[in-house]
Amino acid sequence: MRFPSPNQHLRISVSIGGGMCALDQPWANWYSEADAALYDIKARGGDGWLILGSNATINRPSASDSAACVAEQIRP
Asked: Do 75 and 43 form a contact (C-beta atoms < 8 A)?
């Protein structure tokens, strides 16, 4: 792995997917929600996070969606 010299900028992005489900649901349901959320945020350009669940979707748009957006969106 090469790192840039002190005069160059290094850009790092993080994509996070999470899932929510009821406690009585199988572990596979939670995993499936988290996996879908991760692929969704990466498809939007990455560098953001998304939590999917059976009752709500919580989303922080990726930088490519809206660089000026800093608010979280909650949709039932």
From this structure: no
pTM of the model: 0.61
The torsion region of residue 5 among left (phi > 0), alpha (psi -120 to 50) and beta comes to beta
For the chain, what are the domain ranges? 15-75
pLDDT per residue of the chain (76 residues) written in tens, 0 to 9: 676 677 777 778 899 999 888 888 888 988 998 999 999 999 999 999 998 886 555 555 555 443 333 333 333 3
Pairing of strands 15-20, 48-53: parallel
